[in-house]
Design brief:
The complex is a heterodimer of chains A (about 110) and B (about 120). Chain A is mostly beta strands and about 110 residues long. Helix content of chain A is about 0%, strand content about 50%. Chain A is built from no helices and twelve strands. In chain A, strands 2, 5, 6, 10, 11 and 12 form a six-stranded mixed β-sheet that branches. With about 120 residues, chain B is mostly beta strands. In chain B, strands 2, 4, 5, 6, 9, 10 and 11 form a seven-stranded mixed β-sheet that branches. Chain B has a four-stranded antiparallel β-sheet with strand order 1-3-8-7, with no helix packed on it. Chains A and B meet through strand 6, strand 10 and strand 11 of A and strand 4, strand 5, strand 9 and strand 10 of B.
């Protein structure tokens, strides 16, 4: 079945550092790919998405490119802020509509 | 436009009891999905309702059941609660079209603690 594997955390960075969180997937067909963010005590917010190969999703300085050849969707940001501290989830959505999530990566950004 | 809302926010139950969680979908949406998020884990798909019918189910036992109402709001019922049912329960609504891959919008969740 479909599955998502993402980088184990936690990740601790200093403000303005470069961020990469790796995500790879296994799926049949051509899934849509997502990054969600969860702030402490809250639900999930969609950060960005890509629906086909080579698409780049971007939002709030975060980017991820749908790489079919490497089945990857790595999240990057050039300069993180303290306010980016949260848990980040990579997810895929196949034809059945349900979302399949990775285990999450906790990011802490220190001033 | 009202977003997805869930009630209650927190709930404490004991083993063997039954619980009902509620979700109001975003205006214009016709599909509701429920997810269970255990502490430190990613959300796991429980089931989805589309036009009041179950439209897919994850690997959860039958004591997890649901309903969707004509206004597209939904309930998640869990019978015979077990300690491992302690989790954050997330509801997500979307508008299903034939093309699929429709974005799901999440509510804030209900934190269930089973003692």
């Amino acid at each position: 079945g479909n599955s998502v594997t993402q980088m184990e955390g936690p990740v601790t960075l200093s403000e303005e550092a470069f961020l990469t969180i790796n995500c790879t997937y296994t799926a049949t067909g051509y899934p849509s790919l997502f990054w969600y963010v969860q702030y402490p005590g809250e639900g999930l917010q969609l950060l960005l998405k890509a629906t086909k190969a080579d698409d780049k999703g971007s939002n709030k300085g975060f980017e991820a490119t749908y790489r079919k050849e490497t089945t990857s969707f790595h999240l990057e940001k050039g300069s993180v802020q303290v306010s980016d501290s949260a848990v980040y989830f990579c997810a895929l959505q196949g034809g059945s509509e349900k979302l399949v999530f990775g285990k999450g990566t906790k990011l802490t950004v220190n001033p | 436009e009202t977003g997805v809302t869930q009630s209650p926010t927190h709930l404490i139950k004991t083993r063997g009891q039954q619980v009902t969680l509620r979700c109001s979908s975003q205006s214009g949406h016709n599909t509701v999905s429920w997810y269970q998020q255990a502490l430190g884990q990613g959300p796991q798909f429980i089931f989805q309702y589309y036009r009041e019918e179950e439209n897919g189910r994850g690997n959860f036992p039958p004591r997890f059941s649901g309903l969707q109402f004509p206004n597209y709001s939904s309930e998640l019922n869990v019978n015979a609660l077990e300690l491992d049912d302690s989790a954050l329960y997330l509801c997500a609504s979307s508008y299903t079209t034939s093309g699929g891959g429709n974005e799901q919008f999440f509510g804030p969740g209900t934190r269930l603690t089973v003692l």
